[in-house]
Amino acid sequence: MPDNAVLRLRAERLAKSTRPYLARGSRVIRCQGCLLPKRNCLCSHIEPQQADSRFCLVMFDTEPLKPSNTGRLIADILPNTQAFMWSRTEVDPALLAAIADTTRQPYVVFPASFVEPPRPVFTALPLGGKPPLFIMLDGTWNEARKMFRKSPYLDGLPVFSLDVSAKSSYVLRESPREDQHCTVEVAAALLEKSGDIQASESMSGLFGLFRTQYLAGKPHHPVHQLTANSDESL
After folding, report:
1. What are the strands of the beta sheet with 132-138, ordered from one edge?
2. Which residues contact 119 (CB under 8 A, 6 or more apart)?
3. For residues 15 and 29, what is the distance between their CA atoms, to the nearest angstrom?
4. Number of Cβ within a 10 Å radius of residue 19
5. What distance in Å separates the CA atoms of residue 179 and residue 177, rounded to the nearest whole number?
6. Are 76 and 210 in contact (CB under 8 A)?
7. C-beta neighbour count of 59 within 10 angstroms
């Protein structure tokens, strides 16, 4: 079973809960590594990669608990990924230390249209610059906007705005915008843009498998029916 920052954060969040967190499909017996139904487990397909880029996930409330969360896939592929619970005022000292690391340039990943001057916005990494630390705000779109607006410790950091024009293939939750992409899709695109091609391809491949296996765990979804029929024919 894999071990990464998001799974550890999930364990901490569960330990602090005063009542059980019941996600959709809570009665399903799940693998505690990938959070998929055990029959659809993909842990054996996870192959960690090396990359110059690093990621820091700032996660909203119950996000680490959700089986549909894709930030966990980033940490599966890049084991040095960090993950923290979001708070407006009670900030984890380790998060502040990551931001203050002088060997890396931190960027808050967010659309440029939400950035007010004079805050700098980058769409490409500067030549000869420090290796990036991409800070990703992991939650629903409304939650991400709240984190962006109400995190004073991030206000002084430049923003990295990524133009991902293709329609998202993430179909595990409803999105208010067709062009909105899930966390791991954005991370894979950032890796590609940064030149970490192998890590980008591995992350995209794992996401594709995760999406298929997640949908295969839904009894009424066509993917489940297809895989069930395949099992019966063996």
Report:
1. 82-85, 54-59, 132-138, 105-109, 159-160, 121-122
2. 155, 158, 159
3. 20
4. 5
5. 5
6. no
7. 28
Retrieve residue 139's tokens. Answer: 């939650």
Whether the Cβ atoms of residue 188 and residue 141 lie closer than 8 Å to each other: no
Tokens 């397909």 — which residue? 45
Q: Would you say 216 and 223 are in contact if contact means Cβ atoms under 8 Å apart?
A: yes
- Tens-digit pLDDT profile for residues 134-162: 999 999 999 999 999 999 999 999 999 99
Is the distance from CB of 51 to CB of 78 less than 8 angstroms?
A: yes
Q: Is the pLDDT score of 167 beyond 60? A: no
Q: Where are the alpha helices (DSSP H) in 2-92?
A: 5-16, 71-77
DSSP string, 210-221: HHHHHHHTSTTS
- Is residue 189 a contact partner of residue 203, using CB atoms and an 8 Å limit? no
**Between β-strands 121-122 and 105-109, what pairing exists: parallel, antiparallel or unpaired?**
unpaired
Residue with tokens 């498998």: 209
Q: Whole-prediction pTM value?
A: 0.86
Owner of token pair 């592929």 = 77
